[in-house]
Amino acid sequence: MLSYIVYLAGFWVYHVAQKQSVSKAFIWGYIPILMLLPDYFYAVTPGLPDPNCSQAASVALFAVFLMKGTPGYRFSYTDLVVGFYAFAVSFSEFRASGYSDAQNLMFNQLTSVLFPYLFAKSLIEPFNLRYDFAKSIVLCLCFVFVMNLYENKMSANLWQMLFSRFFPGQGQGWMTTFRFGLARASGPYGHCLIAGIVMAVGYRLQRWLQWSDAWPHKIKQLQWLPWVTPAQLITLMMLGGVLSTLGKGQWLAGIVAAGIAIIGRSKKPALAMTAVITVFVGLGIPLMGVFIDYASVGRYNAHDDNQETACYRYELITTYMDVATEKFWWGWGLMQWPEDPQFESIDNHFLLVFLNHGFVAIILLLGIIFGMMGRLISHGMAQPISEPRGSSLAYSLAAIYLMFFIADITVSMQYQSSTLFFIITGLSDAYLRTSNWDGDVGGSKSKVEIDSRKFKFRKVL
Predict the structure, then answer these.
(1) 151: which strand partners?
(2) Phi, psi angle pair for 338, to nearest 5°
(3) Is 187 left (phi over 0), alpha (psi -120 to 50) or beta?
(4) Can you tell me the distance from the alpha carbon of 109 to that of 132, in angstroms, rounded to the nearest whole number?
(5) 182 - beta bridge partners?
(6) Residue 260 structural domain
(7) What is the pLDDT of residues 86-131, one digit of tens each?
């Protein structure tokens, strides 16, 4: 019965949505619940799916969203892609296991994929709340970073220490791992690599907020830190959050994805785009060949732990691709493929989706990533140069998609990282569909019309 405290999250979000607004309930109610409360603790409810806190909040918010006439929502073709992805995952599990075993996964696809996507596309851009949304995520992750420092030092997860008493027998499979003599912080996200993805998204959003001049230049409570502005301090905290997870794959993903964000900072985006593509192709193809040679020697011939890890991930693909193609279209179902005892886990999200849910699901997921990335870059290139420099949301969102792609090659996208991916997709869809402004004073609530002629004049001058 103690696990029923999960439903308090739903009651709270429902109250805020009814008394104030659905947008406020999403940004300042649902988002903090998603970012701060573990998704691996859930309420065991007889005869019903077992929701976690964010799912309970999602159901409550969706009910008010419908009652108030779906404010801000407009149909787009992306809805079909995301909806069909959720259907493909659910249907594949239904085929493999039947409804009784598949109901929780179906419920998950509704409450952690489809509903958050709809909230993000309907309640952020149509109400000019992009800065509030990003700030909500960043401030939550700053708090997580502070808690992570304790985990790094003491090897104890504060979230499990606090909440496990309400959820006996749950969350015990998540163990602390170590690197460089430090515990790898996982925060409320289950695993340090999942935490690394979430923190990297937060870092990229914070850099966009900083470039957009969205934070106040002075905060009374921080006047004792005269050498750093609030925006710089928050950026350092977000960087610390990324480092606290000690995830090399996520670090690499963030570094590579920063190449796209740099385009938005350039005075000559076309030239910057050419340079970025040249570097990606010029270095990427040779490095791919080097990596294959490095990773294909086999774990038993590896010279160190880094090479052994690379070999493990390479062998995963060579071993399990044949297994995946045996049930090509719809997959084996959740964790039901013939398991090879050589491998403890599938550290590649795309391979895992292919195994679990088949070709249909993996193509839809890759279509979302590369389709959105291409549309965002194209949109950014078509807009006038943003001021302040780097305040174009298009390049930051495109960088997040590239980061998701690279990181998900090395780890499974689960829990909050998966929900956050579809929230970013909802925001991106609404941004591409409705936005004709990009680049203004971050604290402004009104759109600022940009006359492209003045940029041409400055260029001539």
Answers:
(1) none
(2) -65, 115
(3) left
(4) 26
(5) 179
(6) 2-460
(7) 999 999 999 988 887 788 899 999 999 999 999 999 999 999 999 9
